[in-house]
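Same chain as my last thread, 386 residues:
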Amino acid sequence: MTTAQIVGIGATEFSKESGRSELRLSAEATLAALADCGLPPSSVDGAVTMTYDSTTPGELARSVGFGPLTFFQRVEYGGGGGCATVLLAKLAVEAGLAKTVVCYRGLNERSGQRFGRAANSGRLAGDSDGARIGWQAPFGVAVPAGHTALVARRYMHETGTTSEDFGRLSVLLRKHAATNPAAYFYQRPITLDEHQQSPWIVEPLHLLDCCQETDGAVAVVVTSAERARDLAQPAVRILAGAQGLAVEQDHMANYARADVTDAEESRIVARQLEAQAGMSLRELDFGIFYDHFTPLVLMQMEAYGLFNRGESRHALADGRFELDGTFPINPHGGHLGEGYIHGFNGIAEAVRQIRGTAANQLARADTAVVTSGGAVPTSGMVLARA
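reply #2:
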């Protein structure tokens, strides 16, 4: 039986100019998450973040005032690692390696180092990822949007999906963000025509197909079911958690595959989640899908087995992903509408929905699938009401 539970969440505001260091942002989010559940910083003995995060677990521990750490880790693969941080926390708690673990992500992704710029690839120089980029960047495939555009064009060719289909997803998530006061695009919905008229970034991706660049931080507190009973907030069970790295996996550039649109890494995760949770993902109440680019959301939902290939666009057009639809997705507005904190704000939204405290509260929100970045080595979770 699953014993690890999420008991606290915290976040800073989502902005384009935070005016603070990434360490301070992470510290603010962590203190907010601990205050949310009523635990003192000294009770924390574990910390997990991503390799891309500039704040090490040790520096966060010193800044916030954690107790002695018995578990501290960093997870690979950028946006694909968000759910994996919580998975590591779950494993640590259930193995007795730590009692209370903080998972966090803080970044100045707009005012500081921007992941969408080609020059940012230089941060990988000297390792195997840097060598891989060296085979692509000279030919113009130097940014995440470029990698995604090549795959998206093939997916469109094979399934009949159009730019307007991608645009409907962007419109939907901006609609959700427009009624979420925490969202950067609060009260700023868009129309499909505005999506179609937005500038090309890399065809077939418009500007409004691409996630935001956001300053901010989010933190999550994981502890045991026994300790959760005495805390301030209703706990959320981590019913399942998994990672997936496919054969011939590349970091967003999976061109060595027989089918470049095959999101095998997501299927690897989905199979594990269903086995652990003991249910089909189609039975869950809602989904939080990592929306770095609109085409990858549709492809990821199909890889997760929620729809047959090419059919997610029809579910979108039929309104199934709306707040009152049969399978709502990203009620907070996602990365396109709320903010981009490498999936951590999606994890926090899933917790709020299951608690019943979300801005756009769903009528049915007892169970959720939460995903991390698609087209990269990835991870996912199933969360449920405790």
